């Protein structure tokens, strides 16, 4: 008769860990791994956002211009002769400095605007230009009721070079004049900037501004064109929406340089609302007939004609 033998117990191996200790060790290692993954993910996202915001587009094909001049015209409201003069003014400037001229029509964007004013086509026009010229770096939006009056001065030497931008940036000033509590950052450098704009007497004014292509530009234009802002019925539509965005979104403020009005957006003497020293003087890059299309007593074509003739003389003499 056979008897069952008692179960054999294997002696513990030297330095063996108990199952309980091993389980706890695994939990600790898992927690450390998850924490490390989370930290690396956050660092990756932050580095991607801030690095890509200031990055320039990849080098494009030979002949790609660094600057695109964007003008959105309302062909239903402006005469053909007026539009030809505007286009001629931009094309001459673009040819001189190796830039590209992009003319858009507000009617091309009516399906996107829904019931919003046509002035919102500033945003759609800029997005259209960036999509059409993905390898260009800077996009210079210029209102149709404006002329480039100093054709020999390139945008680079005037404002885009770091030293020039540094010297013109207004720091620690109210974003929205005259005394908004939100002010431009005092620590910003030219290398931080993706949006260059000026103020008039009452608002940031997007009639003339420069935007650098990149992730920030896409974010900024999408934010600005948010349906909530277009439907909010701001008194000045896209202008007041921009004032709101910059004051409530430090992400935008941290990438924006405010420059003196005459740097990019000098007003004619017939225009109201110019900032102090914001009225056009000989030698300024841009002359803008601000509000000429909104005042029945004014004529955009009549105001522009003598300055257009003056510009033609300059072009012929160069």
Determine and state the CATH class: Alpha Beta
Strand content: 5-15%
Shape: globular
Physical arrangement of strands within the biggest beta sheet: 2-1-3-6-5-7
Radius of gyration: 29 Å
Tell me how many strands there are.
9
Number of domains: 1
Low-pLDDT residue spans? 1-19, 39-54
The largest pleated sheet is described as: 6 strands, mixed
Helical content band: 40-55%
The CATH superfamily name is: Spore Coat Polysaccharide Biosynthesis Protein SpsA, Chain A
What is the succession of H and E elements?
A: HEHEHHEEHHEEHHHHEHEEH
CATH topology: Spore Coat Polysaccharide Biosynthesis Protein SpsA, Chain A
Query: What is the architecture at the second tier of CATH?
Result: Alpha-Beta Complex
Our count of helices gives 12
* Oligomer type: single chain
Q: How many angstroms separate the termini? A: 123 Å
Q: Please identify the structural class as seen in this structure.
A: alpha/beta
Query: Overall pLDDT, averaged?
Result: 88
């Amino acid at each position: 008769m056979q008897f069952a033998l008692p179960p054999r117990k294997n002696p513990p191996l030297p330095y063996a860990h108990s199952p309980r200790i091993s389980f706890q060790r695994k939990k600790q290692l898992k927690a450390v791994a998850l924490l490390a993954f989370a930290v690396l993910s956050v660092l990756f996202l932050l580095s991607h956002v801030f690095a890509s915001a200031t990055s320039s587009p990849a080098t494009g094909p030979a002949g790609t211009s660094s600057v695109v001049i964007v003008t959105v015209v309302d062909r239903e409201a402006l005469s053909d002769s007026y539009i030809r003069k505007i286009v001629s003014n931009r094309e001459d400037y673009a040819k001189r400095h190796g830039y590209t001229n992009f003319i858009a029509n507000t009617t091309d964007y009516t399906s996107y605007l829904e019931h919003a004013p046509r002035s919102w086509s500033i945003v759609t026009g800029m997005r259209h230009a960036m999509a059409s010229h993905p390898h260009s770096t800077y996009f210079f939006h210029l209102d149709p009721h404006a002329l480039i009056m100093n054709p020999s001065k390139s945008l680079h030497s005037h404002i885009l070079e770091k030293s020039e931008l540094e010297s013109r940036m207004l720091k620690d000033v109210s974003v929205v004049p005259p005394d908004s509590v939100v002010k431009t950052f005092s620590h910003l450098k030219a290398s931080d900037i993706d949006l260059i704009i000026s103020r008039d007497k009452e608002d940031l004014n997007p009639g003339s501004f420069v935007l650098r292509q990149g992730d920030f530009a896409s974010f900024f234009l999408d934010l600005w064109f948010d349906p909530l802002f277009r439907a909010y019925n701001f008194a000045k539509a896209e202008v007041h929406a921009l004032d709101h965005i910059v004051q409530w979104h430090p992400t935008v403020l941290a990438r924006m340089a405010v420059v003196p009005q005459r740097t990019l957006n000098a007003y004619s003497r017939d225009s109201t609302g110019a900032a102090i020293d914001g009225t056009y003087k000989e030698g300024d890059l841009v002359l803008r007939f601000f509000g000429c299309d909104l005042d029945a007593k004014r004529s955009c074509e009549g105001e522009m004609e003598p300055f257009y003739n003056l510009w033609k003389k300059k072009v012929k003499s160069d």
